[in-house]
Amino acid sequence: KILVTGALGQIGSELTMLLREIYGNDNVIASSRRKKEGHEELMESGVFEVLDITDGKKLAEVVKKHKVNTIINLAAILSAVGEQNPQQAWNININGLYNVLEVAREENCSVFTPSSIAVFGPTTPKDNTPQDTIQRPTTMYGVTKVAGELLCDYYYLKYGVDTRGVRFPGLISYKTLPGGGTTDYAVHIYYEALKNKKYTSFIAEGTKMDMMYMPDALNAVVQLLEANPDKLVHRNAFNITAMSFAPEDIAASIKKRIPEFEIDYDVDPVRQAIADSWPNSLDDSAAREEWGWDPKYDLDAMTEDMLEKLKVKLGL
Ligand code: VAH
C-alpha cells in the first residue's frame, strides 16, 4: 500500500491519480494537512486521510492502519514561500521528513521524497551542473532539500530503508497550481496568455532555469520507484531535467500559437535572487544511465498541450 503525503499539491494531485490507475484505488492512500476544494474526485476515489506530517504519532497510526509499505512524501513548503516563513519551511520539510523516515524505519517502508534544483547555490557550476558537485544553497528551501538528501542517504546506509528521490526542476502543469515556488512564472504565463494575451514576468529576461512538463515528472517517480535497486549508484538526488529556458523562450513558444501574445517584465527581487542562485542547466546522465530516465516533452510540445488543456479548463 502506498501513502502519498501532500496529495493535494501540484505534484501530489496528479501523482495520486496516476498511482491509483496503475496500482488500484484501494492501494493508494492520499493525505493532506487539510481537505481542499476542487479535489473531490481524488478525495472520493480512494482513502483520504487528513494528516500533518509534523505529527509523527498520527503518521505512524495512518501507516499501521492501512499497512502502508511505501511512503511518497510530497508535503513541503517551496522556495518563495519558504523565504517568507523559513521556520515553517524547516519544520515541514525536515521535521516532517524525519518523521516519515522514522516511521519507515520502524514499519519497514520504502520512501520516495523529491529534492530539487534548489539544492544548488551560487558556488555550484551553473551550466551542465554535475550529479555530484558543490551544494551551498542560499534559500531555506534549498537548505532543507540538501539536509533531506543527506538524511535519506543516512537512513538507507544506516538502517537499510529503501529511500529514493529525484532533484525536480521547475514543474509545469495545468491541473493544480504550484504552491509558491520561483519557477511558478512558467505556469502562470500560460493562464495569462489565454486570458489576457499578455504576461508580466516576475523573473527577468535571460534567466535560464531547468523545467519539465508534469507528465514527464510523474513518469520519473514511477520509473525510479520500479527501478532495480542493484543498479542505483545514486539514490535520493538524481538530477533530472527535460528542458532549460528563460522567460523570453517560453514567450516565443506561446507566440507561435497566439501571435498577439506579449511578455513584459516587473522583476521581483526576492524570487529573482533565488532564480539567479540556481543552475542554468543540469547534467542528468546519471538518471539516464541508472534507471532509464528519458523525458518526452520539449518546450513546444509542452506549450501545445498546456494551451489546449487550459482552454478546456478555463472554458475558453
Ligand atoms: C520552486 N517549483 O520553485 C519549486 C522547485 C526547482 C523549483 O523546487 O521552489
Automatic annotation (TrEMBL):
<dbReference type="Pfam" id="PF01370">
    <property type="entry name" value="Epimerase"/>
</dbReference>
<feature type="domain" description="NAD-dependent epimerase/dehydratase">
    <location>
        <begin position="2"/>
        <end position="240"/>
    </location>
</feature>
<dbReference type="InterPro" id="IPR036291">
    <property type="entry name" value="NAD(P)-bd_dom_sf"/>
</dbReference>
<dbReference type="GO" id="GO:0006567">
    <property type="term" value="P:L-threonine catabolic process"/>
</dbReference>
<dbReference type="GO" id="GO:0008743">
    <property type="term" value="F:L-threonine 3-dehydrogenase activity"/>
</dbReference>
<dbReference type="InterPro" id="IPR001509">
    <property type="entry name" value="Epimerase_deHydtase"/>
</dbReference>
<dbReference type="InterPro" id="IPR051225">
    <property type="entry name" value="NAD(P)_epim/dehydratase"/>
</dbReference>
<comment type="similarity">
    <text>Belongs to the NAD(P)-dependent epimerase/dehydratase family.</text>
</comment>
<protein>
    <submittedName>
        <fullName>Nucleoside-diphosphate-sugar epimerase</fullName>
    </submittedName>
</protein>
